[in-house]
Amino acid sequence: MLVNLPTRNLALELVRVTEAAALAAGRFMGRGDKQAADRAAVEAMRLVLRSVEMDGVIVIGEGEKDNAPMLYNGERVGNGSPPELDVAVDPIDGTRPLVFGRANSISAVALAPRGAMYNPGPFVYMNKIAVGPEAKGRINIEKPIADNLKAIAKAKNKAVEDLTVVILDRPRHEQMIAEIRRLGARIRLIPDGDVAAALMTAMPDTGVDVLLGIGGTPEGVIAACALRAMGGEIQGKLYARNEEELQRGREMGYDFDKVLVMDDLVSSEDVFFAATGITDGELLQGVRYYGDGATTDSLVVRGLTGTIRRIWARHQIEKLNLLSPIKY
After folding, report:
1. pTM, whole model, 2 decimals?
2. pLDDT for 294-310, tens place per residue?
């Protein structure tokens, strides 16, 4: 009798990457120093990524390499051995919430087979709608907000007035917010961190039903990897900030009218995702520091099996500092 043996779960290696970034960046909660927090997270993430058994290329990173602290697009990570993978990183999703001591800052990493992730090039904004498993297949980003909210409410056996919509608190969303209020749904405005917000739609205990609005394109691809594995759905359309950016995109072959569905954003089920909380939030608990160590709370997801793990870990900082060039 043939038996399919379990294959390697890289997400369990990825969680070490996000734990390291969270432990390093968590020291900067409320200290107002964005660059120092970014640098700490990036250095820790890069160090641990080097140890992962893969031939990885960062597709979703922080743009072209310069003197700023970042993991840049095209950077090779891992130890160089197979498998060949696309890598998406967000060392800190929600830097401002972190440096001002607010909620829902996380560190996140996703992997997919080489060529499976959507490459947005230099275009950093995307209009998005994201939902969890119950409303999968019911959304359409090109339809009016009212139609989408009614469809989501029906799928979840709720009234529209029962729904909670997460949206970035930005002037560009004023009309959208007014329309959602008119329809009677509840609104949760967030300052940053729409990877965490998208994931909340797939976690019933968070009370979030849908993410709407224009946010980061890289964050959209990272969220797509997680939601694909978690059974949710995200759709997006590239958003040009001005006529010059629109023209540039068209010259490069990008279609700003195209609806990017799950298969466009990440075309494989063989995805891995890990996130670790940096500050407390509905999705994950933040890093807790003690005299002899620290604790972390992480989410680990594998696409092929649909398994979602929650990993609580206690770390002995003194031992970590003896082994690592990164100061935790």
Report:
1. 0.93
2. 999 999 999 999 999 99
